[in-house]
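[SOLVED] Need 3D model of a two-part complex

Original post:
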Amino acid sequence: MNRYNPKDIEPRWQAKWTEDKVYEAIEDAEKAKIYATPMLPYPSGTGLHTGHVRNYSITDAVARFYRQKGFNTVSTMGWDAFGLPAENFAIKTGTPPAESTAKNVAYFKKQLLRLGMSYDWSREVNTSDPEYYKWTQWVFSLMYERGLAYKDEKSQWWCEKCNTVLADEQVTAAGKCWRHEGADDPEVTKKKVNQWFFKITDYADEILDATDDLNWPEKIKTMQKNWIGRSQGAEVSFKVDGSDQVLKVFTTRPDTLFGVTFMVVAPEHELLQSAVPTEQKQAVDEYVKSALKKSEVERQENKEKTGVFSGIYAINPVNNEKVPVWVADYVLASYGTGAIMAVPAHDERDYAFAKKFDLPIKQVVMPNAADTNNPPKPGMKMVERPTVIVHLLDKSTGKFALLDWHESLEGITTGIMGGVEDGQTPEEAALMEIREEAALEHVKIIDKLEWLTAAEYCASHKGENRRAITTVLLAEVENLDKQGEIAANEQKNHTLVWVEKDKVLDRITPDHQKQVWNMLWNRSYLPGEGQLINSGNYDRMSAAEARDKIVADLAKQGVAEEKTTYRMRDWLISRQRYWGAPVPIVYCDEHGPVLVPEDQLPVVLPEVKNYVPDGKNSSVLAGVEDWVNTSCPTCGKPAKRETDTMDGYVCSTWYLHRYTDAHNDKQAFDPKKANYWFPIDFYFGADHAVAHLLYIRFFQKVLCDAGLAAEREPIKRLIYNGYINAEDGRKMSKSLGNTVDPMDIIESGYGADALRLFELFIAPYDQDTSWSSTGVPGTYRFLNRYWTLVQEYLEQTTPQANDAVAEQLTKLAHKTAYKVTKDMDELGFNTAVAAMMAAVNELFLIKAKHGYGEREAWDLVLSTLAQLLGPFAPHIAEEVWHDLGRTDTVHQGHWPAYDETYLQEATLTIAIQINGKLRDTIEVAAGTDQATVISSAKAAKKIEPLVKGKEIVKEIYVPGRLVNLVIK
RNA sequence: GCCGGGGUGGCGGAAUUGGUAGACGCGCUGGACUCAAAAUCCAGUGGUAGCAAUAUCGUGAGGGUUCAAGUCCCUCCCCCGGCACCA
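Solution:
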């Protein structure tokens, strides 16, 4: 028998597919298209490992599925070839980045070809190719001409030894450069560097607003929303006391303005330059100096609040109160106005600061602990009164008192409630209530919640609604033995029950009581929403309502306005590096920065001998004199080139467009072609949630506004796959030595098909999981079993007539086609594979019993499986397809249809439960009516004795599935 | 702290969305074939008790709803990913 030998089959078909251009796609307006492609890889020196292969296997399964279903399908591959590792390798070894990159690309390509991925290689791109980056420079020009590229001086980290700027991530916790963190090395400093930015913030609102509607994983959408970080609030002006200066703050909670007890400005704030009184000057200067020395990382890592009083006072516009202004580094200069109004009662950070420096805390919002069992009724008047809830703790047992109100509406409550009469303190009222309701004398108040709570309910017996402004207390019972008799009338109403602390929440019934209990023990809680108190005319207004009202009122006096701020900044695209696309700008003495005209692009990266930066404030390009010195495109006079290159993310922002027209030398791409393929139907990746995936959305919108694209969102569906960890449970990485090269698996004889199949079978595609070295042998075994069936079928030809077997085989073909199609529609690769395995197992049983006599039915089921295997194991699928006598490729337009009538079973297994427990099963013919099924169920062997003489209270029938008999 | 995703056999994972928990694979056990091994094929495989039929427990914990809960509700614990002094 012909043995299954992937080493023979796979390279043979790979060559044939290439020869026949099976995966090359041509735009065809008549045909529905699918653009399904993975994020392009950075071709590292270490090649792809089995973790990476998951992403490509998923992409290819989807692309092949739609190609087999007859869609005009394109899937593509390219190389994100610019970047730091190649440059560092050049610095170390002198190997030109172009050379090492080409070598790496070759190995990646070899791997992907050997895996049999169905890319249209005629569309391959390489971002470091001048023919490609010519158009990356055009992208810059587009941005520049549309006012979306600008140069600005911003503060950056600077290492004196490297003579270069550093990213925040390259600064250590000790405040030193990642390359120079020795004891003798200097700390990094801040330096202002002139850099190029893309104005992504212009599109922040549009990107954010469109995010919810994307068919993307929630996780990624949330990350993008957080990253953009839009927050709506108000800018409020506080007058600086004794000066005509104004201190502006941004706040999302203008409703808490009456709770402002101090202000805080960032150490960088300009008010500190002019308004600090002499007696505070030294303290402020010292604090500012030490704060600025700390790295951003340090400032954010240390959550312990530090700060100093500035000597300045500001005037709160809502009540003209004079509040002190402090300097503290928990306020960031770069967000909002670099200054805040502090409301310690309702902001965690302000609370911590106030506690540390002993500043006043003023509650202005009361949480609503509404009684949902007994809510206020509309139309009744609201009567407000102060009340107290006191919780009782038994000192000797550590248990808490619960009040069981028996059948009454109150349910089970914790704590004793009562009104606070005029002239009484809440504590006095509490002790009185305890005496009356629990008859306890030796009681001490030991704790008091700082916040008042408003509980609104309907006192129906009094015909009024009530608002209880509640003080929450905790009292300790020193000696429970001395409890006297509860007054008879009280005892009728409730019983005191003592329970452990962790049981209390389970027992309490009213919601507001649970809330109060949580508040007492969870002190980090600060009231956020609710109704205002201590807020003048705004008292009892809801916080949400007051937010708008207060801003509107202040706006009339010109001291507040609505304001939106964002966390996202503009995209810094400058890099002082060699191995990137040069920024196409020339500096002329007369004309300033001038864009290099399109007909002079690309600005080609010159070859250099030495890749080590020369210590000037720029990349090694600055040292290439005959490159730097050029002429002004406008006037022709001597001028100098920009020596910054572009961030690699700029290159990958538009490659998806380039794929649609990869060899166009007249333009970056023909919008007609791009518009045919866009938006991308499936984009596959496992990284770049907020960088690349935001940038391409930004870029697509710019293209639309420039009239070069039609769809404002480039990616219809994002498929974000999970990681495969190494078998040891750790992350797969070359440095840990726990990676597996797919080539090793393939060459050891298992082949690409078994590997790809396992990559899809291992777990749901979006779930993290770990590699298993016994997995590929498992999927290989399955393919081998399928192969064996086909070979045996081809060798044994004696026809037999057995209609039942033919029916069984036909049904199996349709059922499996149905299941796999449905799973593929939902990206359920693992269960699709399981269905095919189950089919092969069943076929083994059939052939053992009946042989291969039913030729037609066997051909149907085997060829159906060949088609279904196409997306998963394309080589064996194609081989078997041809073994079964087909002459065209299975990979174009062959997907099995299924007939619903074959999906029905003639007999159904009905589960029989008694009181919800499975006791027996019976077989009934499909279509049997309910009464018959139930009576057969009652007569079933194991059921009959169980129901005999019992009263059947209820009979439930779930058609085709189960019968549940409820007996007494 | 906030947001998102999870917690099911020895392991990876199924479960028609409230209806027979553990599909499929790995591993393990037994058997067939073989001089023997590998490969292959067949059977078994959640725990406990039992020779067995069977009983009983069982989807992170505790409550609840329901004829019926892995699935829904409440309270809580743990793990992973992201963000985080963003006012």
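Edit: Residues 803-825 of chain A form the longest helix (23 residues).
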